[in-house]
Write a structure and sequence with these properties.
Helices cover 31% and strands 15% of the residues. It has helices at residues 26-29, 46-49, 51-55, 110-139, 177-188, 205-210, 239-257, and strands at 4-7, 13-16, 59-63, 142-150, 165-168, 195-197, 217-225.
Amino acid sequence: MDIFNLHKGTAPLLVSVPHDGTALPDAIAARLTDSARRVPDTDWHVARLYAVARELGASMIVPRYSRYVIDLNRPEDDVSLYPGQNTTGLCPTVQFTGEPVYRDGAAPTPEEIAERVDTFWRPYHAALRGELERLHAAHGRVVLWEGHSIRGELPFLFDGRLPDLNLGTAGGDSCALAVQRRLEAVLAAQDGYDTIVNGRFRGGYITRHYGDPGNGTDAVQLEISQRTYMDEDSFEYRPELAARLQPLLRDLLRAALAA
C-alpha cells in the first residue's frame, strides 16, 4: 500500500508534513458524515508550500491518507498532547468544529484503531526515523521541521484569532537554544505576519518525540494560519499569497540549518 512519499535530499533537513494527506479508504469514507468526507481538517497544500525546502536540498516525507484515517502526529497510545483542552485524537471522532467525523455507531473500535496503527502509523514513523538517522550519520546533525497549517479561527480548539505563524519548540526542549533564537530573530525582522513562539501550538508528538538537541537532532514545528496562503472556505491554494510567504519560510529553514 502506498502510505507515504519520501523524497531523500542531501541537506541535514527533513520536512515532515503529517497532515497533508487527503485520501480515504472506501470502507472508512462510507462511514463518515457528509461534512467529514470533505476532510476539512487537512493541512491543505503544505507540501506544495514547502517546495522551497527542496530547493535547499531538504528531504520531505508526505503521507497519502487523511488524518481522519489516523493522526500521524499523535502518540500511538493516544495520550492527550494538550491536557484539559479540546483536541482531537489518534483516530479522530470529532472535527475541529466540534462536529462528528463518523455517522452514529460507525466510529472505529479499539481493534480497528490498533490495525490502523500497524498499517499507517508505524510505517510512516519508521521511515521518518530512518531518514533522520541517515541524515544525522551523513552530517553529524539534523533538523526536523514539522510543517503544519490550520484555519485561523476555530472556537472549539482555541479562543480568538490564531497568529499567522505559530512556532513551537516544546517550550525550548525540542531544539537547541541557539536554533530557537535564530528563528525568533528571523520572525522579529519581518513585519508582514504576526507571530508567536510556544503559544497554543507548542509542537505535537513528532516534534516532542524526535527532538533531541543534546544529540544533534533539532525539531521545530511551524503552524501556519491558512489565511496566509489559501482560501479557508474553498480550500483553494492562492499562489499570489503563497509567493509572499515562501521567502520567509526559506529564511526560517536557512536559519534552522545554520551551524
